[in-house]
């Protein structure tokens, strides 16, 4: 399984290796949040040009550990965990694809925008149209959606043919659905793929049949094209 988060991005002028800063919540000072750097030459996938980047985002973890500080092990209630992942900017379609789960991608892009507002313009996550996607699926396998009930805020349905359930279909029609898992034919093979309203594309099926340098990215782009989420 591989999770990618996709953003609408009209400007991405990162040409050198640069650090990313993040404002602390305690004293409004800036601290190191990670880095981003170009990673090789551009790629052509489905006639579209992608510029690759190597990214690091440091996530604060609140958990007591023993850290080596000043020559001795000392208790540390908070530490930083470095997350490394690739990203790809497509100027043809103004998209930024981050190969990381949404919480990491969101923190990274927010810090990147705040550090380089003159170089980066990321307007928000790609909005998947579930009504359009369901016309391309063989069947749905899962659906998460919000409900207006006194004690329940959301429901999850799982099983083959979820889309045939009236409540599930109504959630998609009324744009209450937040996450859809579907079986879709992409590149001549049935794939299990998740679509999130937060811009996440989750590839559950391993693309072992795609003999390319970056098979997951290849599958992601072909999925967007197949579902007309990208033109």
Describe the biggest sheet?
A: 13 strands, antiparallel
Average pLDDT: 88
Helix percentage range: 10-25%
Radius of gyration: 20 Å
Morphology? globular
Instruction: Kindly state the number of beta strands.
Output: 13
Low-confidence stretches: none
What's the end-to-end separation, in Å?
25 Å
What pattern of helices and strands is seen along the backbone? EEEEEEEHEHEEHEEEH
Helix-strand category: alpha+beta
Strand portion, in percent?
over 45%
Observed structural traits:
231 residues; alpha+beta; 13-stranded antiparallel β-sheet; 16% helix
Protein architecture, described:
The relative contact order is 0.18. It is built from four helices and 13 strands. Strands 1, 2, 3, 4, 5, 6, 7, 8, 9, 10, 11, 12 and 13 form a 13-stranded antiparallel sheet that branches. The two termini are 25 Å apart. The mean pLDDT is 88. With 231 residues, it is an alpha+beta fold. A hairpin with a 2-residue loop joins strand 11 and strand 12. Helix content is 16%, strand content 51%.
């Amino acid at each position: 399984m591989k999770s990618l988060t996709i953003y609408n991005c009209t400007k991405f002028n990162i040409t050198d290796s640069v650090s990313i800063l993040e404002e602390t919540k305690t004293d409004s000072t800036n601290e190191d949040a990670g880095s981003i750097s170009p990673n090789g030459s551009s790629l052509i996938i489905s006639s579209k040009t992608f510029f690759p980047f190597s990214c690091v985002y440091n996530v604060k973890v609140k958990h007591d550990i023993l850290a080596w500080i000043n020559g001795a092990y000392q208790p540390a209630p908070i530490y930083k965990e470095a997350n490394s992942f690739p990203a790809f900017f497509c100027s043809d379609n103004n998209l930024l694809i981050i190969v990381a789960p949404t919480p990491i991608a969101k923190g990274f892009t927010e810090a990147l925008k705040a550090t380089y507002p003159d170089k980066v313009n990321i307007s928000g996550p790609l909005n998947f149209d579930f009504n359009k996607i369901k016309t391309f699926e063989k069947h749905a396998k899962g659906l998460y959606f919000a409900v207006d009930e006194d004690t329940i805020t959301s429901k999850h349905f799982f099983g083959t043919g979820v889309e045939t359930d009236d409540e599930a279909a109504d959630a998609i029609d009324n744009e209450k659905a937040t996450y859809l898992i579907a079986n879709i034919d992409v590149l001549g093979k049935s794939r299990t793929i998740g679509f999130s309203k937060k811009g996440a594309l989750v590839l559950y099926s391993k693309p072992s049949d795609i003999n390319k340098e970056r098979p997951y990215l290849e599958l992601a782009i072909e999925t967007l094209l197949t579902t007309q989420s990208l033109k």
